[in-house]
Amino acid sequence: xxxxxxxxxxxxxxxxxxxxxxxxxxxxxxxxxxxxxxxxxxxxxxxxxxxxxxxxxxxxxxxxxxxxxxxxxxxxxxxxxxxxxxxxxxxxxxxxxxxxxxxxxxxxxxxxxxxxxxxxxxxxxxxxxxxxxxxxxxx
Length: 139
Prior knowledge:
By secondary structure, the chain is an alpha/beta fold. It has 2 domains: 1-59, 2,3-Dihydroxybiphenyl 1,2-Dioxygenase, domain 1; 61-126, 2-Layer Sandwich (Signal recognition particle alu RNA binding heterodimer, srp9/1), CATH 3.30.720.110. 18% of the residues lie in helices and 36% in strands. It has 3 helices and 8 strands. The chain has helices spanning 5-9, 21-30, 78-87, and strands at 14-18, 34-39, 42-47, 50-56, 70-74, 92-98, 103-109, 115-121. A 4-stranded mixed β-sheet has the order 1-4-3-2, with helices on one face. Strands 5-8-7-6 form a 4-stranded mixed β-sheet, with helices on one face. A hairpin with a 4-residue loop joins β6 and β7 (103-109). The relative contact order is 0.17.
């Protein structure tokens, strides 16, 4: 099946490789993602107006250690999502907390070790300024 016109035109969509698509769909939909479509070993999920692709790779090597990467998902009530994640018994990489960069967030791991960082902007801190060190060797 061909992707929707929205999928084809969207600038940046994260695609995650998973070992077992059924298991991953159960995980993501329990957290509130909506299944848009499934084509065999491929699925398109939605979180509000954003898409997330899952691609089944049965021989994907298990992750041994921290998440290789994570995707940030802004929500209006991160504490509610945290409570849901706790009730589902999801593996936590970083517990909920207020961060210096202006977000209240936490990170859980999907069944294949990919990180999902749910966050809410801390009131009054929506324009957090981050200082970056100068790049060496630039004149």
